[in-house]
Automatic annotation (TrEMBL):
CDD domains tied to this protein: SufS_like
Assigned EC number: 2.8.1.7
Keyword Transferase part of the UniProt annotation: yes
Entry keywords, A to Z: Pyridoxal phosphate, Transferase
GO process terms (BP): cysteine metabolic process
Cofactor(s) needed by this chain: pyridoxal 5'-phosphate
Protein name according to UniProt: cysteine desulfurase
Record SUPFAM superfamilies: PLP-dependent transferases
Protein source organism: Pseudomonas eucalypticola
Domain Aminotransferase class V positions: 23-389
GO molecular function: cysteine desulfurase activity; pyridoxal phosphate binding
């Protein structure tokens, strides 16, 4: 059954890619951009770029106004209690590194940090390196066969020594919502700080950070149909108060002398240097666009397409899914076929999917795999895209077997 996307025409790159015979199914890596974002970027650059928070002139005032309006839009999108809880970074990775440096003073040698076995390198390596720097223990929470963080095991492993829990909301490889409510409750019962990597989760549906109850939540704009080079670190005010400044320079300083300085609190104190002004304004425009869509219709469309994807994969002999993906993506391997060979043949047929370890090497290794193919969906994909993918897959498998 044809499953059209009512939003496809809002994303000019999709038609452009189609003219180049490309079917884009790598949305978990990054997304195409809506016209509303392109218009906002063109408007900003065509009407006068300016730095924010420092110039008294009109372009500076307008840029600052638009920049701070975006902060409010992000706060609204996440239902943060205040825009001052939103720090702009350069991406989820830089937000997580900011946390791993900024929180270092909160830990003592022997303290434990818990992550899960499915984390993207961005939510593993900053904590691993912090543990190595500060003599902490990194505890890795194992997974169930369905690819969920194992709550039974977590109950054994999270305890009074746990000072921080950092977990993904939605795995970029396994595509399942993690049992965050129970995990966060467990960590909080022991007084640990909680960090949620929302890089994949934020794209699907609306999420309420207050209801989630995490201390910190991070995401990258480019995966949410926004510009690249921009990320968000949300923090509860009390948790933000625990962060030490970690990058120093313009704008974050209150008073500076040759031998000492004092710094602004969050958010400005954590936005040293010139921020990605156009990108932040563009993220605001993207959120305006997304907020104008019927959220229930978007979710229903994504689920219908995901169902088609799963059925198609199940129907093909030798295809093995990783975990039990519930939405947005599916990773798979094919018996007797190397994922790099398959990816090569898919690429040759204009199918843009991702192959390899998906920046989660320990997870793939734990599954006994060197790599897998991942198909990930965006709101502009339709069933014709999947049909082209399956035709290309069948052709490739015929050649490889
Ligand atoms: C779950 C997850 N966390 C973090 C990241 C890092 O995002 P970025 O590279 O935009 O910083 C990604 C990117 O793929 C991801 O999928």
């Amino acid at each position: 059954m044809f499953q059209p996307s009512p939003w496809r025409a809002d994303f000019p790159a999709i038609a452009a890619l189609q003219r180049q015979h490309q079917t884009y199914l790598d949305n978990a890596a990054t997304t195409q951009k809506p016209q509303a974002l392109l218009d906002a970027l063109a408007h900003y650059y065509q009407h006068g770029a300016a730095n924010v928070h420092r110039a008294q002139h009109l372009p500076g005032a307008l840029a600052t106004q638009a920049f701070e309006a975006s902060r409010e839009k992000v706060a609204q999108w996440l239902n943060a209690a205040s825009p001052s809880q939103v720090i702009f970074t350069h991406g989820a990775t830089s937000a997580l590194n900011l946390l791993a440096y900024g929180l270092q003073g909160q830990f003592q040698a022997g303290d434990e940090i818990a992550v899960s076995a499915l984390e993207h390198h961005a939510n593993l390596l900053p904590w691993q390196q912090l543990a190595l720097r500060a003599g902490l223990k990194l505890v890795v929470l194992p997974l169930t066969a369905a690819g969920l963080i194992d709550l039974e095991a977590a109950r054994q492993l999270i305890g009074p020594r746990t000072r921080l829990l950092a977990v993904s909301q939605l795995s970029n490889v396994l595509g399942a919502w993690q049992p965050l409510e129970a995990l966060l409750a467990l960590a909080k019962a022991h007084g640990a700080l909680t960090v949620v990597d929302g890089a994949q989760g934020v794209v699907h549906g609306r999420h309420d950070v207050q209801r989630l109850g995490c201390d910190f939540y991070v995401f990258s704009s480019h995966k949410l149909y926004g510009p690249d080079g921009v990320g968000v670190l949300y923090g509860r005010s009390e948790a933000l108060g625990k962060l030490a400044h970690w990058q120093f320079g313009g704008e974050m300083v209150h008073v500076a002398d040759y031998h000492s300085a004092s710094f602004h609190p969050a958010p400005l104190g954590f936005e040293a240097g010139t921020p990605p002004v156009a990108g932040v304004i563009g993220l605001g425009a993207t959120l305006d666009y997304l907020a104008s869509l019927d959220q229930a219709a978007v979710i229903a469309h994504e689920q219908a397409l995901h169902g088609l994807l799963l059925r198609g994969l199940h129907d093909r002999e030798g295809v093995r899914l990783l975990g039990e993906p519930k939405l947005a993506l599916a990773s798979f391997v094919v018996e007797g076929v190397h994922n790099a060979d398959l990816a090569h043949l898919l690429t040759e047929q204009g199918i843009a999917v991702r192959a390899g370890h998906h920046c989660a090497m320990p997870l793939l290794k734990g599954l006994g795999l060197a790599g897998a193919i991942r198909v990930s969906l965006g709101l502009y994909n339709d069933s014709d895209d999947l049909q082209r993918f399956f035709e290309a897959l069948d052709k490739a498998l015929e050649m490889l077997r």
